Amino acid sequence: MSSSKGKVISLHDVLQYYQSEVVRYLFASTRPNTEFSISFDLDVIKIYEDYDKTERIVYGVQAAKNEDVFEQEKRIYELSQVQKLPKGHTFAVEDMPYQLPFRHLCNLLQINSGDIETTIASLKEVKPMQVERLYARARCAWNWITDCAPPEFTFSLRPTDTKPDLSDSEKQAIALVLSEVVPHVDTVDEKEISTRLYAVAEKCGIEGKSLFVAIYKVLINKEQGPRLANFMKILGRERLELLLTV
Fold first, then answer.
1. Radius of gyration of the chain (CA)
2. CB count, 10 Å around CB of 152?
3. In the 3-class helix/strand/coil scheme, how is the chain assigned residue by residue?
């Protein structure tokens, strides 16, 4: 920030993309005499990841390097909270807020065209007491996607009433993916999905990268996108069958 150069970012601006706790975390985790940046590019993902890591350490889900690090992370986390924690407050694992990685949340929101309610409803393990904070993160994530995210990060699902531009060999490969990979996406892990995709590429006599490009073109009208196996897992069998029938 430089008021002398007219470059001023207001707190209102920052809170469009960062949860209140994460904004406080930026200050609490930085030494007072150290310069730092409030970024709105891909660094946003890293900042959310850092906050989530601190939270996991404090609640005992992830181990700290040593006791000193734990105490430091605990103090940073306490200062990051908007509501002051009562004296003697303990952090029980079962009380930890629901964590949804910012990057993954961005993918879910884009799959659901920015519908926050639908996105949260799809997360069956979320408890009622966890919805408010998750909604706040989702709002920030969608604002970031629509205002700040680089073009290579954003996507939307291809409307099913449109036809992707595919060669005959790409169409054949997609047909094999539809018959040999898609039926299993709901029951196997990401590693198995990747294995099956490469098997399809080998059967078609094409490189794995070429197959991935063809699938992305069908799904999101782009040649690259979110990590494919995970993306297919999120979409699920029914939606994939609809999108990949070309």
1. 21
2. 10
3. CEHHHCECCCHHHHCCCCCHHHHHHHHHCCCCCCCCCCCCCCHHHHHHHHHHHHHHHHCCCCCCCCHHHHHHHHHHHHHHCCCCCCCCCCCCHHHCCCCCCHHHHHHHHHHCCCCHHHHHHCCCCCCHHHHHHHHHHHHHHHHHHHHCCCCCCCCCCCCCCCCCCCCHHHHHHHHHHHHHCHHHCCCCCHHHHHHHHHHHHHHHCCCHHHHHHHHHHHHHCCCCCCCHHHHHHHHHHHHHHHHHCC
Q: What is the pLDDT of residues 31-85, one digit of tens each?
A: 888 887 888 999 999 999 999 999 999 999 999 999 999 999 999 999 999 988 8
User: Across-strand partners of 7?
Assistant: 2
For residue 130, what are its two tokens? 């966890």
- Paired with 2 in beta bridges are 7
For residue 233, the cross-strand partners are none
Distance from C-alpha of 57 to C-alpha of 76, rounded to nearest angstrom: 11
Please give the backbone phi and psi of residue 2, each rounded to the nearest 5 degrees, phi first: -145, 100
The HSE-up count of residue 81 (CA atoms within 13 Å, CB side) is 14
Residues 6 or more apart whose CB falls under 8 angstroms from that of 108 comprise: 100, 119, 122, 234
Q: pLDDT digits over 109-138, tens only?
A: 999 999 999 999 999 999 999 999 999 999
CA distance 243 to 156: 12
pTM of the prediction?
A: 0.88
Report which DSSP code applies to 125.
T
